[in-house]
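Q: My labmate handed me this sequence with no annotations at all. I'd like to see what the chain might look like in three dimensions before we decide whether it's worth expressing. Could you predict it?
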Amino acid sequence: MPQPGTRLDTTRGGAPESPSESGDRLLLERARLCLRLIAAGVAAVFVGWIATHPGEQPLISLVQGANFLAVLTALRFMRNATDPMRSHIVGFAAYAFTIVATGAVGILADDATTPLLIMVGMSVVSGTMLGWSPWWQLASVVIIIATAIWTVASVVTSPPHFWLQNVGSVAPTLIATVFMAHMLRRQREAIERAERDRLVREEGLREANRRLEKEIHEHQRTEGRLRFAMRELDHRVKNTLATVQAVADQTLNSSTDMGEFADAFTGRLQAMARIHGALAQRRWEGLTLTDLVELVVGPYRHHAESVLIACDGTFVGSELVRVLGMALHELATNAAKYGALSTAGGHVSITSRVDDGSAPCLHIAWDEHGGPAVCAPTRRGFGMHLIEEALVYEADGRVTLRFPGQGLHCEIEIPVPPPS
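A: Here is what I predict for the chain of 420 residues:
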């Protein structure tokens, strides 16, 4: 069963009630219960009087009937708890009408004792059961005392101050109900404060739990990313070591002496290191073609005009960067040893374009000018095989080498993968 303060208020679309709203609803339910008891009592006396005194004192029946209708009307108007002040006023009006009606019935029945006892009982019940504001209870006590004086004075005419003895004997009990209402009011306010504090603490705990769950989720995601990074690092390290081993073996096989091997292997290893460092700085996402060409070919520049780069901003993925970078390194090394970059007056031009269409393709052109006259080599070493075969096997590309007299010309075509 829902506890007060967490119960759902259907009049507000199912929103949870605050402690004060729950207290107002509880007070309304108590008031309606009291009025039902009053209505039942009035009805019982009303029916009993008619049954035992047929035809006598019709005014008593009229007063009791009016009292019964007043209580029923108050119950009808006290169904909605959204306006507690109106419920207080309506309920108090029916309560006060019952007190006056009780006094009137006593006068008509020439009985002052019974109405006085009924009034005292109603005051005690209202002070203990309702627990409403002590000001409302004080108003009810004033009405009871005034009605009791009126009733006793009307029934007992001598001695002149007999009503004072009767009312004075019950006055302390009536005043005590005011203090009872005050204490119950304070207790209710303390309960509401405690309930509000509990709700605040619960909300704080829920918020802390949400933050903790979020932190745990973030921690799990971080752990997942770290595990993935470690696996990726392990994979890349193994691939790099395998590549270094293959480069070392092929360089050794194609070298005529250890000096040639040392120069070629060191150059290729340094190129791989530069490419690896650039990719690591960009979290292995890749490089633009211009950055890649500048990274690999730039170190062979004698002066600003010896290496001319006119490439677009095509983005090259990390796997293609490694293969294409090594091919460009072999072209640059060959040009520095035997081609245009071997003389101060020679220069290399690297251009690129992307052909759009059903199968987009990246075209890279390498042209050497101003260097020694060249001819097709009679012996193809590891560097030439890397230029001609690596891009074909690993990137499904096509490489064309031509050796006109003015310098080497290389055409590279690589399919452009669709955007992910």
